[in-house]
Design goal:
CATH superfamily of the domain at 11-111 and 149-263: Ribonuclease Z/Hydroxyacylglutathione hydrolase-like
Strand order of the largest sheet: 1-2-3-4-5-6-7
Number of helices: 10
Largest sheet: 7 strands, mixed
Pfam family, one: Lactamase_B
Distance between the termini: 40 Å
Domain Metallo-beta-lactamase: 30-246
Structural class: alpha/beta
Organism: Brevibacillus borstelensis AK1
Strand content: 15-25%
Helix content: 25-40%
InterPro entries: Metallo-B-lactamas, RibonucZ/Hydroxyglut_hydro, Sec-metab_biosynth-thioest
Catalytic activity: 3',5'-cyclic UMP + H2O = UMP + H(+); 3',5'-cyclic CMP + H2O = CMP + H(+)
Length: 331
């Protein structure tokens, strides 16, 4: 549980853009929501479904003279529960429409067929990765997390790369996948401001979470490759201020992105050295790369390991063999 106390006063962080810091029960700490005063009063992200999050949200809006009922539309940067959990609660009060990337829809609407496939996908992935049977309970823990800190809601309109955000002239959508398949950011060229969600965060490198494909017959997305590509796209852009989903704004985004990409390759090199000692499963590699964290944060750390295996595979620097349903990697 986080011990950080959020600021209940909203702060104007760019022209017509206000930051609301909302508490979460997760180790990442508070989540940042943004209110944009445009043709439509727009909220970016909602925070998790907790009473404390709701009370802080209402107080933050009040500090800038807004009531929850006045919110006209909600834009989601992505579908993780710390960013969209209290979506339906806000919709019930305000009647606001919701805009998000199409890949957020099955999560937000809790599509039963997709969520069933989601669980099968992770069961198979974890088994192939050599995760012990007693650790597979993490799949049920994810279900409980969703049901505890979010509730079924709906997406009214999809947002896609490069389109203008309805009701917000001057703001355009950027598809920035990697941290999640549904992740998008908003960019205003007039003053080079980007609302970056969890794509660019100052104090931590966003994890490129492994997620199932939307098409059940397709291969899983290469999330770390996606994340690096989206970072490189942003490095080529003129961004004076990146407003993050957690923590303080980012100034000097190119330097930060370069550091992230370099550290990323350093971890890939670590993995290469570990594989030079002999073949290993993804779970074994995860335990070696993250000896303190891997048991507590298995989905996060295993995603990181698999992402670096993907990079080595693309470079034709790793081989894989399957034995009794488990994948073993070697140089």
């Amino acid at each position: 549980m986080t011990t950080e106390r959020p600021n209940r006063q909203a702060a104007e962080v760019a022209k017509g853009v206000y930051l609301l810091e909302i508490p979460t029960p997760f180790s990442v700490g508070p989540v940042n929501l943004y209110v944009i005063k445009g043709e439509r009063l727009t909220l970016v992200d909602t925070g998790p479904l907790t009473d404390e999050a709701w009370e802080t949200f209402v107080a933050g809006l009040k500090s800038i003279g807004i009531r929850p009922e006045e919110i006209e539309q909600i834009v989601l940067t992505h579908h993780h529960v710390d960013h969209c959990g209290q979506l339906e609660r806000i919709r019930r009060v305000s009647g606001a429409s919701t805009l998000a990337h199409p890949l957020a829809i099955p999560y937000v609407e809790m599509d039963e067929d997709f969520l069933s496939f989601h669980d099968r996908f992770f069961y198979d992935l974890y088994k192939e990765s050599g995760v012990p049977n007693d650790k597979l309970i993490i799949i049920q823990k994810y279900q409980k997390l969703m049901m505890t800190f979010s509730e079924r809601s709906r997406i009214d309109a999809p947002l896609k790369h490069e389109q203008t955000v309805p009701g917000l002239p001057g703001w355009r959508v950027l598809y920035t996948p990697g941290h999640s398949q549904s992740h998008l950011s908003l960019y205003r060229a007039e003053d080079r401001v980007m609302i970056a969600g969890d794509h660019i965060i100052k104090r931590i490198s966003s994890n490129a979470f492994i997620e199932p494909p939307r098409d059940q017959s397709a291969a899983r997305p290469l999330t770390l490759v996606q994340y690096r590509t989206a970072l490189q796209m942003c490095a080529d852009m003129e961004i004076d201020l990146a407003l993050s989903g957690h923590g303080e704004p980012v100034v000097g985004h190119r330097e930060l992105i370069l550091q992230r990409l370099q550290r990323n390759w350093e971890r890939t090199d670590m993995l290469r050295h570990l594989l030079a000692e002999g073949e290993k499963t993804a779970y074994e590699l995860t335990a070696m790369l993250f000896p303190i964290l891997y048991e507590k944060e298995l989905p996060l750390t295993l995603s990181e390991t698999l992402g670096h295996i993907d990079l080595l595979t693309i470079l034709h620097q790793v081989e894989c063999r399957k034995k009794e349903g488990v994948l073993y990697y070697s140089l």
